[in-house]
Amino acid sequence: MNTLLREDINCLLDKFDSDWASQTFRRLVVRACWSHIEAVVFGLKQISLTAQNLGSGDISGKTRAFLEERQIVVNTVGDATIISVRADTIKNVKLTLKLAARLFDVSWQPQFSGSEWPLFRESVQIRHRITHPKSLKELEITDDEYDSHKTAYLWFTGGFTRFLESMLSKHGA
Question: The dihedral of CA 118, 119, 122, 124: what is its sign?
Fold first, then answer.
């Protein structure tokens, strides 16, 4: 999934390489990048669960429910139901990166104190705005917003790459 979604982004960049001002292009890139980010985060949750199941460390029931994106709800008569639960996008990304680094016991640690993290938070708001617009104006992505999004996406993919390199260095191929 990672490779296919990265290919989507590269295809868009190749197609629109001379038309950076295109609002269509900007919306497509933001949406494609967020599809990639969310797929990577989901994959990290899955491999983190596998690592935990193989004995990489104990996690709480609450943490397991977060990674599994589900919760058991018991009604007043004692019947249990499993429901799907998704965390807020920012919380989802932040907690997943922290848990993956801890469960794989790697040297890489996500950095949330730098200048890129606020841009990442801004990028998700841009994504939400253009995915659920309430007006034509909300579909417009300014030059500054597009630059912020690019920086945020590069921060995320760079961190994910360093996580993978750190994991391979520690645990081998």
Answer: negative
Q: What is the pTM of this model?
A: 0.88
| Domain total in the chain | 1
Residue 141 belongs to what domain range? 2-57+87-171
Other residues' Cβ atoms within 10 Å of the Cβ of residue 126? 21
Distance CA 48, CA 42 (A): 10
Q: In degrees rounded to 5, what are phi and psi of residue 70?
A: -150, 165
Amino acid at 33: C
Q: What angle do CA 56, 40, 24 make, to 5 degrees?
A: 170
Let me know if residue 74 belongs to a domain: no
Number of helices and strands (H, E) in the chain?
6, 2
CA distance 49 to 68: 8
Task: Encode pLDDT of 42-81 as tens digits.
Answer: 999 999 988 887 776 678 888 888 999 888 889 999 999 8
pLDDT tens, position by position, 114-138:
999 999 999 999 999 999 999 999 9
**Is the residue at 12 inside a domain?**
yes
